[in-house]
Structure formats: structure tokens, C-alpha cells
Amino acid sequence: TVLNACAILQQLGLPLTEETIRRGILHASWNGRMEVVKKHPLVLLDGAHNADGIAKLAQSLPHYVNGKKITLVLGVLGDKEYPLMLSEIFPLIHQAVLTEPLSERKLDLGSLAKATAHFHKPVILEKEIPRAFDRALEITDSEDMILCCGSLYMIGEIREYILSL
């Protein structure tokens, strides 16, 4: 998509060289998308908020994991395909801290916890997003990983909180 947009801009007279395009792609970033915000433990934020996004995230995780145990911080909206989302991500994790996004459409903690019960993973419930992240830090070894995903609302708040620490 980016290359097509650049080709159109070139046709419209914008002097974009191949080197400029390569440099732009190399330095491009998207906050909250596979974003590493802390190293020890590794904290990865990803805005995956639907079944397809979570599936793509699950495919990408091996690049980051390298034997690390994953603590998941997850909050989802109730109108998403959350059972499918859980089936994609829960087999990959060691433990989870469940929370609620700041949205009227949020899936309440009780319903989310009930949907995760059959995975038989340790789960902590923490309604407030900053406290959920703090709990994840408490239970995650410094050489392991915290993965935060499930809602763009949650990612925005958790990112702001982490960067303020």
C-alpha cells in the first residue's frame, strides 16, 4: 500500500527517490502495533482487537518470545469475537491479567474470566488498566514477557501509563 501511494505521489510530481522511500519505510513505526516499550521484562503492546488481528499477532509472537514465558494483559470489547480471540492467544501464554477497556462496549471481567476458564491458565482480574499492568509486572520475571492486547482503547491507556513511569 505504501509503495502504491508513493508511486501515485511520484506521478503527481512529488520527487520521491527509491532511497527516500526505503529510508521512510525503515524508520516507520506505529504506536501500539508490535511496539516494544520496555525490555526487562520485555513489554510488547499490540492493538490486535479482533479475531484476525489476534491470529496475526499469534503468528508474529515467535519472533519476540525466544523461550520467554508470556504474561498476557487483556481487555476486550463485548461486541468482538472474543471466544475466537481467546482460542488464538491463550495457548501461547503462561498466565493472564484480565482487565476492562474504557468503553461502554467493554466485556465485563466476569464474562471474560468465564470465557477463559477452560484454558486452565492462572488468571488475575483487575478492573483498572494501570493496576492490571502493575500486577503483570509483579508476576512476570525480568527475563520473560508481558503482552498487552485485545482493545485499542486499552492499548492507548496502558501505553500512556507505561510511558509516564
Based on the coordinates given, report the CATH architecture of the largest domain: Alpha-Beta Complex
**CATH homologous superfamily of the largest domain, by name?**
Mur ligase, C-terminal domain
The separation of the N and C termini measures 36 Å
Largest sheet, order of strands side by side? 1-2-6-3-4-5
CATH topology term of the largest domain = Protein-Tyrosine Phosphatase, Chain A
Short description:
The protein contains eight helices and six strands, in the order H-H-E-E-H-H-E-H-E-H-E-H-E-H. With 165 residues, the chain is α/β, with parallel strands linked by helices.
Structure, explained:
The protein folds into two domains: 1-30, no CATH class; 31-164, Alpha-Beta Complex (Protein-Tyrosine Phosphatase, Chain A). The model has no long low-confidence stretch (mean pLDDT 94). Helix 6 links the parallel strand 4 and strand 5 (123-125). The chain has a six-stranded mixed beta sheet, with helices on both faces. With 165 residues, it is α/β, with parallel strands linked by helices. It has helices at 2-11, 18-26, 51-60, 62-65, 82-89, 109-116, 129-139, 152-164, and strands spanning 35-39, 42-45, 70-74, 95-98, 123-125, 145-149. The protein has eight helices and six strands. The protein is elongated, with a radius of gyration of 18 Å.
